[in-house]
Each structure stands twice: as C-alpha cells, then as structure tokens.
Amino acid sequence: MESIGQFVPLILIFVIMYFLLIRPQQKKMKDHQAMVSALRRGDQVVTQGGLIGKVSKVKDETEIEVELAEGVKVRVVKATIAQVVNKTEPAAES
C-alpha cells in the first residue's frame, strides 16, 4: 500500500505535463495540418524561411508553387508554410 503512495506524485506530474505540454502541441499540429490542406491558388503565404509569396499552383498533396515576385516561382513543400496572410475567396457559382 505504501509503494502505491510513492507513485502518486509521478502520476500527477505526468498528468500535468500532458495537459500543459503534449495536448496543446497536438492541437497546434492539427490546426497547422488543416491550414496547409486548405491552401489554394491565390493565397498569400509566409514560409518558415520568412519568404512571402502568392500560391500560383497546388502541385500535389505535398508541394505547392509560390510566386515570390513577378515571374519568380519556387516550389515549396506544404509543411514549411508558417502562415496564410491573405486567404482568397472561392469563385462565385453562376
């Protein structure tokens, strides 16, 4: 019975660490994944390297083409997009 009492503080520490560190990190990863999967042509994005550009083409599930300046296009891995600055509106249906 006394040995169980010694493990209670360790269990409490793990529970506190889960709610303060692990759970928020998982939520942040889920939000980032949702943002990346919603990228489409015309969105203005910032890469983790600090480059700001406009999405000119969504190549596949892992790669996009970003136009940094007039006529300067680079291929970027979707996972390296840090944030979406301006979101484009979907085309209106006629």
TrEMBL record:
InterPro entries: Preprotein_translocase_YajC (IPR003849)
Keyword line: Cell membrane, Membrane, Protein transport, Translocation, Transmembrane, Transmembrane helix, Transport
Source species of the chain: Thalassovita aquimarina
SMART domains hit by this protein: YajC
TM annotation in the entry: 6-22
Main location: membrane
Pfam families recorded: YajC (PF02699)
This protein's name: Sec translocon accessory complex subunit YajC
Membrane topology: Single-pass membrane protein
Domain of life: Bacteria
Summary of subunit composition and partner proteins: Part of the SecDF-YidC-YajC translocase complex. The SecDF-YidC-YajC translocase forms a supercomplex with SecYEG, called the holo-translocon (HTL).
Protein location: Cell membrane
Free-text function comment from the UniProt entry: The SecYEG-SecDF-YajC-YidC holo-translocon (HTL) protein secretase/insertase is a supercomplex required for protein secretion, insertion of proteins into membranes, and assembly of membrane protein complexes. While the SecYEG complex is essential for assembly of a number of proteins and complexes, the SecDF-YajC-YidC subcomplex facilitates these functions.
Family: Belongs to the YajC family.
